[in-house]
Design brief:
Blueprint (H helix, E strand, L loop, with lengths): L1 H38 L5 H12 L2 H11 L3 H26 L1 H21 L10 H22 L12 H32 L1 H8 L52 E6 L6 E4 H5 L4 E8 L10 E10 H7 L13 E6 L4 E5 H4 L6 E6 L2 E2 L9 E3 L13 E7 L22 E6 L9 E10 L5 E8 L5 E2 L1 E2 L9 E9 L2 E11 L22 E6 L1
Parallel strand pairs: 1-10
Antiparallel strand pairs: 1-2, 3-4, 4-7, 5-6, 5-10, 7-8, 7-9, 11-12, 12-16, 13-14, 13-17, 15-16, 17-18
C-alpha cells in the first residue's frame, strides 16, 4: 500500500509540475500580448515566430500548405506553434520540479527565439519589437520558478495533517492568482490591440470614394450564364480569395498612409497621401486576378470591379520610362507595410494595360484583407509579381540588382498568367442524373482573352462548349456544354483556346516556379 501511495504522490507531483509549466507559458503569452498591444501588435511572439517560419519555409512546402489548408494555412500554422509551445511548457514544468533554474532558463530561451524572430522581420521596428518576447519570457520564467517551488516544497503542516496537503493547497492558490493575472493581462492586451486598429477602421468607414473619370463599361448581361453551380461573373468581396504571408492583417490608418516613388530612372521622386491620389482622375475596370498557387481547377482566382489611379501615369510624371524607350529600370519593386516585396516588369506596367493603384473593390473601399487603403494590381500577371497589398513604397530598379521576396524563394522573376479553364459543375465525384446534364465553368487568359472552350467526355472527341459574352481580355469568361449523360462512370475534361490561337497545354506542371499547367477534369458517376 505504501508503494501505491508513493506512486500516486509522484504522479500528483508531476501533474503539478506540468500545470506549473502550462501556467507559465500562458502567462508569458498573455504578458507578451499586453506589451505588443502597447508597442505594436505585429510584434507579438507568435506572430513574429510564425512570420519567420513562413520566410524560411521552402516554396514547395508553402505550396503544399496552401493546397492542403487553403486560406486556413495561417491559422493552422499558428495553432501548430501554440501546440508546440504547450508541449514544451509541460516538459519544462516537469523539469523545473527538480531543476527550477534550468526550467526557468528554458522559458527565457523562448524569449531569445522570439527576440531573434522579431528583429529579423522585414518590417521590424527595431529593439521595440523585441519587448513583447522579452517581457513575456521573463514573466513566464519567474512564474515557473515560483510555482515549481510551491509544488515541490516539503510540507510544514502539523503531524495531524497528511503530508503534501499544504503543498497542493499552496500551489493551487498561487496557480489561481497566476491564472487571474495572466487572463487579465491577455484581455487588456486584446483591448489595446483593438484600440490601435480603431483609427484605421474609422478611416475606412469615413472614406468616400470619388466617381471614376473613366467608368468601367457595363458587363454584358449575357456574360453571366444562368447555370446553377457556376461561379458568378463578379466575385463578392467576402468570397474573394486571399493568399498572402500576413499572420496579422495590417490595419493602416488612411490619414497617416503614404506612398513613396523613387529609385533608378526616377527624375522626380514623390511621396503621395491618399487624399492626393483620390484627387487624381480614377479609372474603374473589371479585372480577374489569379494567384500563382492556384492548382489546375483551383479556387484562387476571382473577378472584381476595381477603382484606382493609373500607375503608368504616376511613373511618367516621376520621369520613368520603360526599357523599350530607353528607361534605366526594368523592375518595379513594390513594398508593403509588412515588409513584403513584389517585383513587376516596368515594361508590362507601362505598356497600356490598366495597371493601377487600387483604392476600391466592387464599389467600396478595399477591405483590410485585400489591402486597404491602397494595393497594386497589374492585369495579366500572377499576384506574387503584381498585386502588392498595403503598398507603401515603389522603387524602380533592375532584375539583376534586386530579388524580391518570392524570387529569393525560387519562384520565377516574370510570371504571365497561363491559359486555364475550370469545371465548376458538376463537382468531382458528383452523381448527376442521366439525360441532359449541363457542364459549365470559367476560363481565363488575362490580356489575351478566351475564344474557344472544348469539352471531352471520357476518350471521345473534343466538343465545342457555348461561350458566354466576353467582358474584356482582362476578365474570365463563362462557358457551358449540354451533355447527354449515360449511366456509368465518366471523366469530363476541358480545355481553352486563348485570343492568340494557343490551345491550353495538356502538359502537367505544379505551381512552382511560374504557375500550374494542365487540363482540368472531374470524374462523375451517373446512376
Amino acid at each position: 500500500m505504501r508503494g501505491v501511495s508513493s506512486s500516486r504522490s509522484t504522479l500528483s507531483r508531476i501533474a503539478l509540475g506540468a500545470l506549473a509549466g502550462l501556467l507559465a507559458g500562458f502567462t508569458a503569452l498573455a504578458v507578451a500580448e499586453l506589451v505588443a498591444g502597447l508597442v505594436r501588435p505585429a510584434a507579438g511572439p507568435v506572430t513574429v515566430v510564425g512570420g519567420a517560419v513562413i520566410d524560411r519555409t521552402p516554396a514547395a512546402v508553402k505550396d503544399f500548405a496552401i493546397r492542403t489548408f487553403g486560406e486556413n494555412d495561417k491559422a493552422v500554422l499558428q495553432l501548430g506553434i501554440l501546440g508546440v509551445l504547450v508541449l514544451l511548457a509541460l516538459a519544462l514544468g516537469v523539469l523545473a520540479l527538480r531543476w527550477r533554474r534550468t526550467g526557468a532558463a528554458g522559458v527565457l530561451l523562448f524569449g531569445i527565439v522570439g527576440t531573434a524572430a522579431a528583429l529579423s522581420r522585414p518590417d521590424s521596428a527595431g529593439l521595440a519589437d523585441a519587448l513583447p518576447s522579452v517581457a513575456g519570457a521573463a514573466t513566464g520564467a519567474l512564474v515557473l520558478y515560483v510555482l515549481a517551488g510551491r509544488a515541490d516544497r516539503p510540507s510544514t503542516a502539523p503531524d495531524v495533517r497528511p503530508t503534501g496537503v499544504w503543498n497542493r493547497r499552496g500551489f493551487l492558490a498561487a496557480a489561481a492568482v497566476t491564472t487571474a493575472g495572466a487572463a487579465s493581462a491577455g484581455v487588456l492586451g486584446r483591448y489595446l490591440t483593438g484600440r490601435r486598429g480603431q483609427g484605421a477602421v474609422a478611416s475606412r468607414g469615413s472614406l468616400a470614394l470619388p466617381a471614376p473619370a473613366s467608368p468601367a463599361p457595363a458587363v454584358p448581361a449575357s456574360a453571366q450564364l444562368k447555370v446553377a453551380g457556376i461561379s458568378p461573373f463578379t466575385t463578392p468581396n467576402r468570397d474573394f480569395y486571399r493568399v498572402d504571408t500576413a499572420l496579422v492583417v495590417p490595419k493602416v490608418d488612411a490619414g497617416t498612409w503614404r506612398l513613396r516613388i523613387h529609385g533608378k530612372g526616377v527624375a522626380r521622386p514623390r511621396t503621395y497621401t491618399l487624399d492626393e491620389l483620390l484627387a487624381r482622375p480614377l479609372v474603374e475596370r473589371d479585372i480577374t486576378l489569379t494567384c500563382v498557387s492556384n492548382e489546375v481547377g483551383g479556387p484562387y482566382t476571382g473577378t472584381a470591379r476595381w477603382l484606382g489611379v493609373p500607375l503608368a501615369a504616376l511613373l511618367r510624371e516621376a520621369g520613368v520610362r520603360p526599357p523599350s524607350k530607353g528607361g534605366a529600370a526594368d523592375q518595379l519593386v513594390a513594398r508593403s507595410v509588412d515588409g513584403m516585396t513584389l517585383g513587376s516588369p516596368v515594361e508590362d506596367v507601362m505598356d497600356g494595360r490598366d495597371a493601377m493603384l487600387a483604392v476600391g473593390m466592387n464599389g467600396e473601399p478595399l477591405p483590410f484583407e485585400h489591402g486597404f487603403p491602397v494595393r497594386m494590381l497589374v492585369p495579366g500577371l500572377y499576384g506574387y509579381v503584381s498585386a502588392c497589398k498595403w503598398i507603401t513604397d515603389i522603387e524602380l530598379t533592375t532584375f539583376d540588382a534586386y530579388d524580391p521576396y518570392w524570387v529569393k524563394r525560387k519562384w520565377a522573376r516574370r510570371a504571365p498568367i497561363k491559359t486555364q479553364t475550370r469545371i465548376d459543375t458538376p463537382k468531382p465525384f458528383g452523381r448527376p442524373d442521366s439525360g441532359t446534364v449541363t457542364v459549365a465553368g470559367v476560363a481565363w487568359a488575362q490580356r489575351r482573352g478566351i475564344t474557344r472552350v472544348e469539352v471531352r467526355i471520357d476518350e471521345g472527341p473534343w466538343q465545342d462548349a457555348d461561350l458566354a459574352a466576353q467582358d474584356s481580355v482582362d476578365t474570365w469568361r463563362q462557358w457551358s456544354y449540354r451533355w447527354n449523360a449515360a449511366p456509368g462512370g465518366h471523366n469530363i475534361t476541358v480545355r481553352a483556346t486563348d485570343g492568340t490561337g494557343a490551345v491550353q497545354t495538356e502538359e502537367r506542371a505544379r505551381t512552382v516556379p511560374d504557375g500550374a499547367s494542365g487540363r482540368h477534369s472531374v470524374f462523375v458517376t451517373v446512376p
